[in-house]
Write a structure and sequence with these properties.
The protein is α+β, with helices and mostly antiparallel strands and 270 residues long. The protein contains 5 helices and 11 strands; from the N terminus they run ααββββββαβαβββαβ. Strands 1, 2, 3, 4, 5, 6, 7, 8, 9, 10 and 11 form an 11-stranded mixed sheet that branches.
Length: 270
C-alpha cells in the first residue's frame, strides 16, 4: 500500500530557516526566564557557568542521541623527538565538547571528561560577551583575536573537528571592519586547530571558515532575523552527521545548504 503524504510546496529552505529561528527563540526564552528570576547581575563566574549549561542542553537536544555533550579536556599523544618518548599534551579546559558515539575517555566524573583527540567531534568556547575592542593587534585577553588564539591551544593536525566560538551578547555595529580583517584573522585560525572555525556573535553575526580538498572558503553573515544561533547549531549538526553517518540523506534536510545565501555580506575563497 502506497503511503500518502500531505503535499505541501513550501520551499525547504524557508521551512528550515523558520525551524532554526524557533530553536533560537526557545533558547533565548529559557535564558530570559532564568535571568528574570535570578537577575542579570549575578557573579561573573556564575553567569558564565549557567549559560554554558543552557547551551549544552540545547546542543544535546539538537544532535544525534548517540553523541555525548559534556565539558573537559582534550589530550593527544606525540613522540618527543628529543627523547624518543611518547608524551601526553593536554588542552586547557574546553567549555563544551561533543564526543563520538561509544567514545573511550581517560577520565569521567560528573560530566567532566579527559578525552583523546581521536574521540572529539567538536569543541566550543562560550563567552557572555566581548568587552574589549575588536582589534587585530589587541593583546587584551578578552578581544576576539586573543580568544581565537586560545582556541588553538592544541594542534589538531587537520583533524575533522568543529572548532566553535559562541558569544551570547555582541553589538553588531562595532563589527563593521570585520570583513576587511578576514585575511589577518585567517592567519590566526590557521596557526592551530582553526582549520574549520565557526563563530556566532550575538543574534546577528555568524562567521565560518571551512577547508576542503579544493581549498578554503570564508563567509561572514549578517542577519536581521536573529539567525546566528540557528546557523551555528545547523553547521554543528551538519558536521556531526557527516562524520558519524556516511549516508548523506539527512544533509538534504539541514540548513543552510552549501555555499552562501543573501545574508552573506563577505565571501572569500571557494
Amino acid at each position: 500500500m502506497q503511503t500518502e503524504y500531505n503535499r505541501t510546496y513550501t520551499d525547504s529552505n524557508t521551512i528550515n530557516k523558520e525551524l532554526y529561528k524557533s530553536i533560537a527563540q526557545e533558547f533565548n526564552s529559557i535564558k530570559n526566564r532564568l535571568e528574570l528570576i535570578i537577575g542579570t547581575k549575578t557573579h561573573v563566574g556564575e553567569n558564565g557557568s549557567y549559560r554554558e549549561r543552557l547551551l549544552i542542553e540545547v546542543i544535546r537536544k539538537n544532535l544525534p542521541s548517540a553523541t555525548r555533550v559534556c565539558t573537559g579536556f582534550i589530550v593527544k599523544q606525540e613522540i618527543d623527538k628529543n627523547f624518543m618518548k611518547q608524551r601526553f599534551y593536554s588542552s586547557t579546559q574546553q567549555d563544551i565538547l561533543v564526543l563520538k558515539p561509544n567514545s573511550q575517555v581517560l577520565f569521567d566524573y560528573e560530566d567532566v571528561v579527559v578525552a583523546p583527540i581521536e574521540s572529539v567531534l567538536a569543541k566550543i568556547e562560550v563567552k557572555t560577551s566581548l568587552k574589549a575592542p575588536i582589534n587585530i593587534k589587541s593583546n587584551d585577553n578578552r578581544s576576539l583575536i586573543q580568544i581565537l588564539k586560545k582556541m588553538n591551544d592544541i594542534n589538531f593536525e587537520n583533524r575533522d573537528i568543529f572548532n566553535g566560538l559562541f558569544v551570547y551578547n555582541f553589538n553588531a555595529n562595532r563589527f563593521h571592519n570585520f570583513c576587511n580583517d578576514t585575511e589577518q584573522i585567517m592567519d590566526v585560525l590557521q596557526e592551530g586547530s582553526g582549520i574549520n572555525c565557526f563563530v556566532s556573535l550575538g543574534d546577528e553575526l555568524f562567521y565560518r571558515s571551512i577547508t576542503a580538498e579544493s581549498g578554503q572558503s570564508f563567509d561572514l553573515y549578517h542577519f536581521s532575523e536573529n539567525l546566528s544561533f540557528g546557523y551555528f547549531i545547523s553547521n554543528l549538526r551538519t558536521h556531526v552527521e557527516r562524520v558519524i553517518n556516511p549516508d548523506p540523506y539527512i544533509h538534504q534536510y539541514l540548513f543552510p545548504y552549501g555555499g552562501k545565501d543573501g545574508n552573506c555580506i563577505c565571501h572569500r575563497g571557494l
